[in-house]
Every structure is written in C-alpha cells, then in structure tokens.
Amino acid sequence: MAGMPPWQGIPLSSEAVEVVSQVAGIVTSSASVEERMEEVLDQLRRVFPFDAGIVTSSTTTPSGSRTPILSRGYDDDFVEYLLSPEWQAELIEPFGMPRTGWPLRERDLPVDPMTVRGIAEYGRAQGLYEGMVSALHTPDGRHTGFLMLSGSSEESPSDEACAVVGRLSLALANMVDPMQSARVLATTLEADATSLAVRPDGTVVPLHVPGGTDSPVLDLPVTEIVARVLPRGRWTASFLWPRDGGGWYSCQAFRCRDGVAVLAVRDAGRLHDLTPRELEVLTSLTTGDSNSDIADQLSVTTRTVRAHVEHVMAKLRVGSRSAAVSRALAEGLILPR
C-alpha cells in the first residue's frame, strides 16, 4: 500500500512481540528518562545484539550540539561527533529520517556508507560495521532526538529488528522529548491560562497562548519568575505577579520531571479588593510572621499591622488569621519574595 512504512507488514515472532510490549510499559513508568532508556536498550538487544548504542534529545547546547540521554559502547570521539550538528546534517537530514521515524541500516543507505564521515572515520575505526539509526519524531511531526545502534558484526540488523524499532519510534520520541511532561501538564490547566515552558537552558517555549502572539504575558520575564518562585527543591508555587499598568496576574509554577518548568498565567480579577499593602501583609502571614515581624519588614507600627490584618480578614470574610492564611494559600494570594 502506498505510504505504508517499511516493515509494517512484517509478522513479529513471539519474542519480538514481547519486546514491543515490555518497552511500551517501560516508556510510561515513573523512572527517569535515563533509567527507562537503559531498560529499553536491554530489551532491544534481544532483537539486535548491538555492541554500542546512543540516544539523544533534540535539546541543544549553545554550541548546537545535541544533548545525550544515554550512550553505551562508543568511544568519546565518536560520541562527540554523533552529538554534533555535522552528524545531523550529514546523515539525519539528507535522507528524510526526521519525517519517517523508521530505522535506516547501512545497507539501506542510497549512498556508499564509506562516504559518510561518521561511518568511515569513527565507526570503522572502532570496529563497528553495521547497525541502524532511527530519527525519533512525535505524531505531530516534532523531531525529538535519535536512536542509533551499532554492531561489530558485518551482518545487518534483521527486518524484524527494524520493524520492532519502527513500531516503537513514536513512543520513544515522546519519552525523550524534554517537553513531553510540560505539554501534558499544560492540557490540565484552565483553558484561559497562558502556559509557558522554561527549559533547563532558560529557553521559553509557549505551550498555550489564548491571547495569541500579542498577549502581554509573553513579555513577562518568565525565566526570572520561575527561578525566583521555584528555588532548588521546590516543585510548585501559586502566587501573584504585577501587571504593567496596574492589576495582577494569578500565576502557578510547576517543575516537571524532566527539568522543565511550566508557568501558567491568568488575569487575577479584583482579588477581594485587597490593596497591595494588604497583600504584603497577607503574604507575611502565610510564612508565620508575627505582627512585630511584619511591622519591622514594612517599617510601620504594630498597631498599623493589626489594622491591616483586620481589613484582610474582613475582605476575605474569615474570622481568624489562620483562616486567612488557608484562603491565601488556596487562592494563590501571595506575592513572591
């Protein structure tokens, strides 16, 4: 059938079916990406006894090199080359692999393998003769990395081995995508919230922007905000952020499993008519500060603080400081410090 992926119609042996099943369970486990990929490679060795393997993410360093997730068996020089933009331009891009996801063996290359620098200068020098490369891409076409397996035998990976990797490529693409957790999280947030992801390198990626490219939220110092409200060891925060021209944004920040943070921003509305000073006092209450502590922080008298606390309680319609704190935490009525 036209458009059918290579090897799609190849029947799998019982062991190959078991490998596919095992990997499908591994990629959805709660372990780290590195730990999951270790298990995946152990399973793939059952259908292709490779001697070296590498998996990368699409995340790049300032030099343009890819980020390694796991590497086994390749020497340092070869790994450095496989992570370089040159490798991407030499083998991954010319043969359309980012668009197919199905693996390519040396024998399947439309050119002499010895004209490919990575094979001729690095693979052969390390005694590696055959293998496969699969560019990993998600169903929506995002290229998230690649998987490469190499063997010391001149025997090519079997059609069945290629079929196994081909069937698993979408699942592996989602697993190595550093944005996957952030994208899933964004789907659980309120529809009117603008959600932005912050990668470990500080790059900001819009996930959901109801206001379009003209949204003022896109002008916020997102990386600085996340660093401020999610210090090391903290995984979530609810807080307010001032809007240009007055008013507030209601914000939530989350740190995802793969080192990516998500900032969700909505218009805050009237906030029970609390003034900026009352919000400062309420924020101090949430950290357990006494009236004396708050007075010192704000350079006012304790009598003034007591008045502010009374006003806060009245506006929140609660009868105690602890109830005011509970409501502030529940509604994110807190200013970042």
Automatic annotation (TrEMBL):
InterPro entries per UniProt: Sig_transdc_resp-reg_C-effctor (IPR016032), TF_LuxR_autoind-bd_dom_sf (IPR036693), Tscrpt_reg_LuxR_C (IPR000792), WH-like_DNA-bd_sf (IPR036388)
Coiled-coil residues: none
Residue ranges of every copy of the HTH luxR-type domain listed in the record: 267-332
Gene Ontology biological process: regulation of DNA-templated transcription
Sorted UniProt keywords: DNA-binding, Transcription, Transcription regulation
PROSITE patterns in the cross-refs: HTH_LUXR_1, HTH_LUXR_2
Domain of life of the native organism: Bacteria
SUPFAM superfamilies given in the database record: C-terminal effector domain of the bipartite response regulators
GO molecular function terms noted in the UniProt entry: DNA binding
Protein's recorded name: Regulatory protein, luxR family
Organism: Geodermatophilus ruber
